[in-house]
Amino acid sequence: MTQETTPVTDSAEPLVSIKDLEIGFQTGNGFVQAVKGVSFDIFPGETVAIVGESGSGKSTTATGIIDLLPSNGRITGGQVMFGGKDLTKASKQEIVRVRGREIGYVPQDPMSNLNPVWSVGFQVREAVLANNMAKNKKDADRRAIEVLQEAGLADAERRMKQFPHQFSGGMRQRVLIGIGLAADPKLLIADEPTSALDVTVQRVILDHLESLTREKNTALLLITHDLGLAAERASKVIVMYQGKIVEAGPSLELLQNPQHPYTKRLIAAAPSLASQRLKSSRVVAEAPQGDEIDLAAASAHRHEVVEQADHAGTPAIEVKDLTKVFSIRRGSFRSEPFTAVDKVNFQVPRGTTMALVGESGSGKSTVAKMVLGLETATEGEILIGGKDATALNREEMLAHRRRMQPVFQDPYGSLDPMRSIGSIIQEPLDVHKIGGRKERENRVNEVIDEVALPRTVLSRYPNELSGGQRQRIAIARALALKPDVVILDEAVSALDVLVQAQILQLLADLQEELGLTYLFITHDLAVVRVVADDVAVMERGKIVEHGKVEDIFTNAQTEYTQKLLDAIPGANIPLGA
Amino acid sequence: MPKPEHFVAPFDENEMAEVDKVKLNEKPSNLWSDAWRSLRRRPLFYISLATVLVILLMALFPTLFTSVSPTDNCQLANSNGGPTEGHPMGFTRQGCDVYARVVWGARTSLAVGLLATAISGVVGVIMGALAGFYGGWVDSVLSRLGDIFFSIPYILAAVVVMSVLADYRSVWTLAFAIGGFAWASLARILRSEILRVKSGDFVMASIATGRTRFSTLVSHVLPNSITPVIVYLTLSLGGAIVAEATLSFLGVGLPTTVMSWGNDISAAQTSLRTAPMTLIWPSIFLTVTVLAFITLGELVRDALDPKARARG
Amino acid sequence: MLMYVVRRLLQAVPVVIGTTFLIYFMVFAMPGDPILAMFGDKTPNQATYDALAAQYHLDQPFLVQYGLYMKDLFSGNLGTTFSGQSVGEVLARTFPVTLKLAAMAIALEFSLAVILGLFAGLRKGKLFDNVTLVIGLVMLSVPIFVLGFLAQYFVAIKWGWASPTVGSDTSIANMWLPAVVLALSLFTTSMRLMRGTVIDTRSRDFVRTAYAKGLPGRRVIPVHVLRNSLIPVVTNSAANFGVLMVGATVTEGIFNVPGVGNTLYQAIIRGEGPTVVSFVTVMVLAYVVINILVDLLYAVLDPRIRYA
């Protein structure tokens, strides 16, 4: 489209202009509108982020731009203007021509987005050839190696012949970024490009993506659930809620001066941003209003409580020189020992929360499993309330389990889908033969009240509840036996920010009410800041740093901890007020 | 590039929902009730179910369907005769009424099919469940045992068994010969399903509450792994009926004195050129019965596969 | 890959021992005189009886019997048939015919399953999908001997498109009807599996990524959808070979194809127990070998196995 009468400079003309975009899905329960009239512009070289919770329509908007919707999805209205053409009305061939060459795409999950049966080189070369970036196969090979080198794969030439399963998650994401940028597109759509990766890897990949797009002056549309990350990486942030844009603007301004109540809610609930507010030493004592959960206020309050906790008595959990050696299969016949947990020591005083933090493979979950008696320790002692839990007979084990209950990460996997909610919560009571039928029913009613769910859900099945509600059920089940200790293994990691904040609040309330001791296993340091009293950082099976949360956050002693802290997205964005 | 303006949607435009509000449908839903609901919508389900019921009725009360005796009053004068009044499907080579024989034959075919399926079901579920759930040496031993049985196609195994047991051929020996060798595939299917299910956190949660491993297997893991077993058993019921017919056809199935579709088809093959219908009628009954069972299996598979339903 | 091959071969050892032992056990651990039992209502003459007693070492304890039998098996001494021919010689004559018939049937079955399954999957819920489903289920329900007889009666006898019996002319032109019957009896399971896998693969993330690269559908479908969907179909074909062996026995019998299956068929029909046992043993061993070959093919198709 050329406007001859009013010549405009290149930069004033938006690269992509989306107007009143509407997208819906045909589902078992009829047609569901997922995107309801979304409009925004992306200018050349600009980085725009769309932020929202799951179900907000952010990914649907992104995939809708280049018609990558699942087969039951359909654009029902609006326009996507790109290079003078409306992409929603473009023919199949026209869209194919735009994809890759004009608009690149980097997907979310590096594990599932490369075809396992083709070599990495084949898949990169495919992208190069599809977009006429090479004349022949040899030329394509050279270009493919170049693409992988640009994406940060050092030994690209050797790696070309390897298959995706021989790459780590971070490496695969680099390959996918390489593929997305292979044809030097004008716009790159990155849909949660690093959500599946460890924080430190996440940071490196995002830095690299940023420098690549800046170098090539590629515009970037970043889809993320993380407000901190969006603000840190994008110049413009768009907040979506239930298929609509509720607020949009320059990222810093939006973060420091949010106008819409939903944006305010999100910012208040984001642990990474909340930690920053705590540092301002504001003592907020106001009670949470309605649904607005202010993590900063809540955690400040809890820290006061902990100050008064009795640190002198027998610790609820004490772990001494705990070690776990697995035997790992190498090839077909050999196996070699692998030390997953290496002489770990820590104590958790009664009524407090200790967080065990580490990246994947650090051994933190193995520690949790050993404490729970789900995995036997190779060496070392686990004392629960002063009693050794490593050498128990069956009866003692049963008694031990009654005092300590777990809540696991995956809200979709931790409840038996064939059981009703009531029978799930009642199961521990049945196993331990506590009380009669009536007493058990009463106890189930009590705990369902404690986790603030209506009693009507008791006759329902897990598939009818949301992730956050399922996690409440898991907590209710854990509480049924009135345990002293609850082990929370990544218990909030799979939840959306607002729901996460709600569950964290619930856990804090329950701790105060019932005097619970928590062992909180997580990869997310930002969450640690608002929930834990003590923290131990694990790296490759060892505890590398251990101390009070405030001390570690303000004055980390090891480089590794500092690296983890620096990687929290948005942690160093100065918030006003 | 112009500085982006700060856009704020009108507050009332989007009603702010309560965070994570519990929304329940009127009807409770779970895997089984959902599957039932989707089955009820398919006409094919009623057709195959009705067919199965008719065949069952035929097997239990053959006199409801025919008053003609399938064995008495056979007159060689009628040998391979065409349909006449009261004998809609004509006569066999021995001059017996084809329709009566087909009706009475249902009992044997169904009995062998059900028994053989029950035997392979019980053995397969036990082997697959223990191998998948306990892993380690239990898995190694049971899986190798399964490999051995898997490596002998069950009809060939039954051929050997029935050849050796020539003097003891009956519905029971035939059912054991088929079922005793047909369990290995089921054990494999269940084993891999159990491996998938047992990695779920709810299994760990159950053990953490203090349940024993065996109790966890029975009360949580098996109920969640049972759908492919049900589908497989429905399909293999059809397979077992075909196996009976095939073995009878080969002359190593039931004694020729027993009425069964397989025996009748086998007996009719010598008259294929002169009276093809004496072969085709029992074949039709056999095929329709098997078809009804495997169609039910396919429909149940569809209904129980939540992925297939979600994609619409 | 080498390690995988070695491991797979080692795994076959207990299977070979186990299957032969099981067959041997079924025959010789039954109560009564095993040789008489194998003849059913017939009685062998003394010379045959003695020859069999010597062949199966019946004067030795059971485990020794089995050991000696295995030794014979692996030194190529497979025993003699009822009519006094050596099993080895009969095999040498009949095996190539069966191999040819099986190859024709498998080629046809695989093409049918892959092509129909692919299009049924791509057109899920449409007319084509439903029609192939119905045809497939009917083919799965008709016992192979019924299918064989019907084909023989209609195609060969009534319409005269093929010869009703194959006899000594084992050319492709003369064997096409039994091959088609075999293929039709086999293709449904593979076709349904192919269809299901295509539906599943099509919704995979890597397929969306392939489209996002700018590849047109005519490249994504064969390179990313079809290629990946072949893996489970190939793996499943191992189980299909078991059905094929039984099917070949029946079909060769009906069409009088001079192959291994027909020899077994005649032996079963005539109640020649020892021949039945010898040929079943040979078929089971062949099945074990085929299973190994299929697993190796699986490794070729799936790099996750190849470079494990």
Automatic annotation (TrEMBL), chain A:
Q: Which UniProt keywords apply?
A: ATP-binding, Nucleotide-binding, Transport
Q: Name one Pfam family in it.
A: oligo_HPY
Check the record and name the CDD domains matching this protein: ABC_NikE_OppD_transporters (cd03257)
**GO molecular function terms listed in the Swiss-Prot or TrEMBL record:** ATP binding
Q: Where is the ABC transporter domain?
A: 18-267, 317-565
Q: Is Transmembrane there in the keyword field?
A: no
In terms of SMART domains, this protein maps to: AAA
Give the NCBIfam families listed for this entry.
Answer: PRK10419.1, PRK11308.1, PRK13648.1
Family, per entry: Belongs to the ABC transporter superfamily.
The name this protein goes by in its record: ABC transporter ATP-binding protein
Organism source for this protein?
A: Demequina litoralis
UniProtKB/TrEMBL annotation, chain B:
Q: What is this protein called?
A: ABC transporter permease
Superkingdom of source:
Bacteria
Q: Does the keyword Hydrolase apply?
A: no
Domain (ABC transmembrane type-1) spans 106-297
Record field: transmembrane: 44-65, 110-133, 145-165, 171-190, 229-254, 279-300
As for membrane topology, the entry says: Multi-pass membrane protein
Q: Does the keyword Cell membrane apply?
A: yes
**Which keywords appear in this protein's UniProt record, sorted alphabetically?**
Cell membrane, Membrane, Transmembrane, Transmembrane helix, Transport
Where in or outside the cell it occurs: the entry states: Cell membrane
InterPro entries the UniProt entry points to: BP-dependent_transpt_permease, MetI-like, MetI-like_sf, OppC_N
Q: Which family does it belong to?
A: Belongs to the binding-protein-dependent transport system permease family.
From TrEMBL, chain C:
InterPro entries in the record: BPD_transp_1_N, MetI-like, MetI-like_sf
The cellular location(s) given in this protein's UniProt record come to: Cell membrane
Cite the PROSITE patterns for this sequence: ABC_TM1 (PS50928)
Q: How does it sit in the membrane?
A: Multi-pass membrane protein
| Alphabetical list of Pfam families matching this protein | BPD_transp_1, BPD_transp_1_N
Q: Where is the ABC transmembrane type-1 domain?
A: 95-298
- Show the CDD domains listed in the entry: TM_PBP2 (cd06261)
- The membrane-spanning stretches of this chain are 12-30, 101-122, 134-155, 175-194, 276-301
Q: Does the keyword Isomerase apply?
A: no
Question: What is the protein name for this chain?
Answer: ABC transporter permease
Assigned protein family: Belongs to the binding-protein-dependent transport system permease family.
- Major location, coarse class? membrane
Which keywords does the record carry?
Cell membrane, Membrane, Transmembrane, Transmembrane helix, Transport
Please name the source species: Demequina litoralis
Q: Does the keyword Membrane apply?
A: yes
